[in-house]
TrEMBL record:
One of its GO terms (molecular function) is diaminopimelate epimerase activity. Homodimer. It is found in: Cytoplasm. This is Diaminopimelate epimerase. Its main location: cytoplasm.
Amino acid sequence: MASPAPFAKMNGLGNNIIVADMRGRTDRVLPAAAVALAADPATGFDQIMAIHDPRTPGTDHYVVILNSDGSTAQACGNGMRCVVQALAAETGRNSFTFETVAGILNADQHGNGLISVDMGLPRFGWQDIPLAEEFRDTRMIELQIGPIDAPVLHSPSVASMGNPHAIFWVDQDVWSYELEKFGPMLENHPIFPERANITIAQVTASDAMTIRTWERGAGLTGACGSAACAAAVSAARTRRTGRSVAVTVPAGGSLTVEWRDNDHVIMTGPAEWEWSGTFDPATGQWQRDAEDAA
Ligand SMILES: N[C@H](CCC[C@H](N)C(=O)O)C(=O)O
């Protein structure tokens, strides 16, 4: 059995996150451990953010992101805020540079406790997302759900925030759509060779929208930061909103997404610590710390 690693159960606006402290170790959180932790109601999570020692000079940490099905994700905005909150509480620092499989990013905790993550540059090319084939528009007119002459969902915007996203624009309340039914079909549609995060979005003002997301590898979640960013940039790009948008997420509350003139997407929101423990990164066997156990 591997030696236990500390973890914190946290959430980013209702996105259930485990922050695992893998610093000073050479092992990884194995997919089997993620699946075991996800299956246990006490530790059920959407993403594990594993903090490793830095790989590149000038960065503070290398962060590996795992979904609840054990797959790896390139980006997780809400999880990054949790990582910042945990490290800020430990070190008193409020500014960090991380490396993920998708690249290097900066994040800051503000005086009011909110955290901003620079999610980098969005990409819209079909190979970047990736899609299985080229598409002509800013939307994928080929993809629809429901009857051909009266589709329930159709013509999504597609974008990469490091990870693949499709955003379906809807006029009605986002809760009136059966995302739990359509989500798995769309996530695994052959047009998405690496699967995709599926979002339905209702624009409610030139600076506001409400979203629900079916996450690749995690299913319905209380919030998805990278989806909020993908939806915000896609809305601005198609002139549905301006470049600064408050995105309301299913768990309630909202993220602020700002698409700056330098093309960087800055996402700002809260992160919350719940409890801490230790776990075996190979098996997922875990124990809650005594100090805060009930
Ligand atoms: N919850 C995350 C997204 C996880 C991404 C993941 N589901 C994938 O791309 O596979 C967020 O806040 O951005």
